[in-house]
Design a protein that fits this description.
165 residues, 4 helices, alpha+beta, 40% strand, Pnp Oxidase, Chain A
Length: 165
């Protein structure tokens, strides 16, 4: 019996309820798997531990570039500023995970870092765990950068900002 069949709700109800939780938006990047650097938009990023400095994010196993993240030993989490919505949209689309025409820098791990991000967590992979239709990726932060600015938020299926957007 599937998990969904045991619940008193359907997947659409579950997704709608999850959408009531406002999240920040980030692009997770890595060097790629021989085809060049890649990025994917996520809102499933959180701190895990202060000491040691660990973060986690969740990779959709159906992503057309999942293989790049499952074989890479490093990644960077780029927390997006409000003005970076277009980047979020681009890296969320199937087949649009490469860096063609996108300027980037690198830090300690050589994962791509997006200029203008509010925060960047440059990480080495600490662990990967099965999480249903996602893989939970835990990273140890080896370098970070942060700056002031307005965050890009996601709520009820739409991009938002603090105040009027």
């Amino acid at each position: 019996m599937s998990t969904t069949a045991q619940n008193r709700f359907v997947p659409a109800q579950y997704r709608e309820a999850l959408g009531r939780y406002a999240t920040g938006v980030a692009i997770v990047t890595c060097e790629g798997d021989g085809r060049g650097p890649v990025g994917v938009t996520v809102n499933s990023f959180t701190s895990l531990s202060i000491d040691p400095p660990l973060v986690l994010w969740c990779l959709d196993n159906r992503s057309d570039r999942a293989d790049a993240y499952l074989t890479s030993d490093a990644f960077a989490i780029n927390v997006l500023a409000r003005a970076q919505q277009a980047l979020s949209v681009r890296f969320s689309e199937t087949g649009q995970h490469d860096f063609d025409g996108i300027r980037y820098e690198t830090l300690a791990t050589n994962a791509p870092v997006l200029p203008g991000a509010l925060a960047v967590f440059d990480c080495r992979v600490e662990a990967r765990h099965d999480g249903g239709d996602h893989t939970i990726v835990v990273g140890r932060v080896v370098e970070l950068v942060s700056r002031d600015g307005e965050p890009l938020l996601f709520f009820r299926g739409r991009y938002r900002g603090i105040g009027r957007h």
